[in-house]
Write a structure and sequence with these properties.
With about 160 residues, this protein is mainly α. The chain is built from 7 helices and no strands.
Length: about 160
Amino acid sequence: MTRGGGSRRLPVIVTIIVSLMLMVMPLPDWAAPFRPDWVALTLIYWAMMMPRTWSVGSAWIIGIVLDVAQGTILGQHALALCFIVFITVRFHLLMRVFPMQQLAATVFAILALYQFILFWVNGVAGVDVPAVGYWGPVITGTLFWPFVLMLLRGVRVRVHLGN
């Protein structure tokens, strides 16, 4: 690995670690079902902007870490993150030129697929989660997407200009 490649990966790793920390941060009981899927949003962005570096393999590892951190079924988030990152990598060239409203609608669909996979795995395992636990993160994640996009775009621009 070259020195430039490692220094370009460090800010991405830091943003993923921050998103993992936001996912395990305690929230009040009324706000917990509406926590955006910070890890999914972060991985969607990096898979869209750097598909050769951050793709399905890294999504699997991050998903396993998220499963361990949240104490869920091992592989549940890893499977769901792999699906959404695969779709993002597959259509990354289209998504990069979408206007903000269309990109937000696409992110809504991707987050809904992510929650459907979690719903399916929980259903097979017999875990009961209220409906707001699935739809709350999709709606709030879609609402936070423009801010996440601007923040991570700023990080990406600073990294590319700094090297």
